[in-house]
Design brief:
Helices cover 49% and strands 9% of the residues. It is mainly alpha-helical. The strands form 2 sheets. It has a 3-stranded antiparallel β-sheet with strand order 3-5-4. A two-stranded antiparallel ribbon has the order 1-2.
Length: 263
């Protein structure tokens, strides 16, 4: 079951069956790490990080109904849940039990079941990955940005107006697109150009493009923001004298206006 197969339909509340299918789509195909609300969380195959509020927004349900479904599917042996880390506000690490029954495992030769064309793609990807691993580990924020610069991605935009930038976690990108869809923002070529410009503006050594996208996805944002400004914005508002604008307020208001209107 490939990611994105549920996209493109008219927004309407999910049935319980659709909610379960959504969980299969979102679950990790292989072990990796996901960013959620500023935390990097390790997930195993068949797991993904979420929250009651996130699921309620996606399903078009109340939080109470989501909680009831999680309890019933847990008793039915379809889902298992646990806190992603210690803390009262920790998100949920949701496991799709018997995931291998729903998503078939690769064959011994490393290719997924399919035609010879699929085998060729797997072999080509393995070759490219091997060559990449031979390079010296000197990839920095600047080299990562070269892969997502507007000029470098011009050809990709012709085929897909809003393609996933290189190096971004597919799960984080899927969540980011869901945020934009929830806010009814168009994924046009102009919007994508703005995204790349924002990535270039806010990328630092500590905040590469992939981490910026993951942060935006976890925070429910529909655009890339300066993480340092967002972390300090509320503290500045509390400490600033009355009647004077606080640092970051103007840019935050401009971003909010950008999120409300179509590009």
């Amino acid at each position: 079951m490939h990611r994105g197969w549920m996209d493109g339909f008219k927004p309407e509340p999910f049935t319980e069956r659709e909610a379960f299918l959504w969980s299969i789509e979102r679950a990790a195909w292989e072990d990796h790490e996901q960013w959620f609300n500023g935390h990097r969380i390790a997930v195993n195959r068949g797991e993904f990080v979420t929250s009651l509020r996130t699921m309620a927004d996606v399903f078009g349900w109340t939080v109470k109904r989501v909680r009831g479904l999680m309890d019933r599917l847990g008793k039915a042996g379809k889902w298992a849940q646990r806190p992603a880390y210690q803390g009262a506000q920790a998100p949920t690490l949701l496991s799709v039990l018997n995931y291998n029954k729903y998503q078939e495992l690769p064959r011994r030769d490393g290719t997924a079941p399919g035609t010879a064309k699929g085998k060729h793609r797997a072999q080509r990807g393995h070759s490219e990955g091997t060559q990449q691993n031979l390079k010296k580990p000197q990839e920095t924020a600047s080299t990562a940005l070269e892969q997502v610069s507007p000029s470098a991605s011009a050809r990709a935009v012709k085929a897909d107006d809003y393609p996933m930038p290189a190096g971004v976690d597919p799960q984080a990108w899927s969540d980011f697109l869901a945020n934009r869809k929830r806010k009814r923002l168009p994924n046009t070529a102009s919007a994508y150009k703005t995204l790349l410009e924002d990535l270039q503006l806010h990328t630092t050594e500590n905040w590469p493009p992939a981490r910026l996208i993951a942060l935006a996805a976890g925070k429910g944002w529909a655009s890339v923001r300066n993480p340092e400004t967002e972390d300090n914005r509320y503290a500045n508002q509390r400490s600033a004298p009355a009647g004077r604008p606080t640092p970051g307020t103007e840019s935050a208001a401009r971003r909010a206006a950008f999120d409300r209107v179509e590009l």
